[in-house]
Amino acid sequence: MSSNRKVLPTWDKVGKHALFPEAKHDEIARFNFLANLNNHLSGQVLPGVKEAYEQNALPAFRAEHGREPESRHEVREMMKKQPFYQLWSALRRSTMECRQQAGRSLVLRQIDRINAAAAELNNGAETLVLNPETQIPDYVTVVDTHCMPGSYHTSVVEGDVSAGANYDSGLFVTTVGQLGSMTDGGGRAICDWLKKDHADFKPKRILDIGCTIGHNVVPIGQAFPDAEIIAIDVSAPVLRYGHARAKSLGVNNITFMQVNAEDLSQFADESFDLITTSMVLHELSAQSMPKILSEISRLLVPGGLSLHLEQPQYSGRPVFEQFIRDWDTWNNNEPFWGAMHDVDLVGMIDSTGLPSDLQFSAAVTAKVDESIFPKTETGDKTEDYGRAAAWNVFGAWKPAEAAKQESVA
Ligand SMILES: C[S@@+](CC[C@H](N)C(=O)[O-])C[C@H]1O[C@@H](n2cnc3c(N)ncnc32)[C@H](O)[C@@H]1O
């Protein structure tokens, strides 16, 4: 019975739309193989890494130093020499390289069709605003983020959307369906949390920063159909794709704009009710993150909400867990991952004028998508065998006008 429950959704269950790359039998098989290998590595091989730590590395460390390791960095130094860790790590990196190359070749062989489909949906639309003068920051270009060839920003031909198409088609392989068929579990988790904990909050103007292809802002657009939504990113190829994707899904209340979030001076003070980032802060440099958070603070109306979705911070977790969570920093072209998960977020947000008593942090989980994790004949509850990703949502409410005046008095 339990083996039934472990059946993973296959790649062909990914939600389709007008731009989505078409895949042949072998391309689908390749994605499925990689998704299953990822799943095997995290479910069956990773426990062996912990065993290698507990049985080999840790006793040796204690014998040499006469104490417990104090940081993930010490754990990493000792684990780098453990053959079982080397095996797990090399395979994990390889699955990412293979996913990106598989996605890239899938997209490039039909790039003319995908670019033309995007152009048809984008041409003349006021809801796509590109600015070729936008400075792409070094921290976006310095590496091919999580091994994506050309990262988010590289266009290979004019009007290119290939970076977006590759991102869209491959994410399912890494997340193995946990984000749902439309890979929008993060945005849905944000909307569910707002509905559950802040049902009266009805934002009229929303800004999403670092939207990429809009996976997670589209559900926000659907949850607040009367709101005006602006989704910004520095990278043109993903914006072209994201705008066309939203249109083809029938979501028309989002304007996609090419803007560097470090300078949002084109937007007036106190002009947004809700400002979101999903899985963005960990890709920002240490210098840019406080700048962007300060811009958010400036742009919020009094009583407005800033809300960020990320993996949980490291603080308070066992050093071995921190070391595993930090794998991406060293092996997955995510150079800012570890530094961001170390930052004192409360202190940093506080320093932008959003005080700690108005901040929040909550664990949220995406809903299991029953369209890709169908109920079994046993009649068990979906939660028993489906899978959904878990995150941390955190942020702050901007002091309302009355409270601000009180504190000035
Ligand atoms: C991990 S992706 C975000 C994923 C997306 N929010 C989602 O939910 O699927 C990070 C994005 O942030 C963008 N980005 C990085 N720095 C930026 C900046 N300073 N201003 C605007 N966008 C930025 C990148 O181009 C990239 O598309």
TrEMBL record:
Keywords carried by this UniProt record: Methyltransferase, Transferase
CDD domains the UniProt entry points to: AdoMet_MTases
Methyltransferase domain residues: 206-304
GO biological process, one term: methylation
UniProt-recorded Gene Ontology molecular function terms: methyltransferase activity
Name of the featured protein: SAM-dependent methyltransferase
Organism annotation: Alteromonas lipolytica
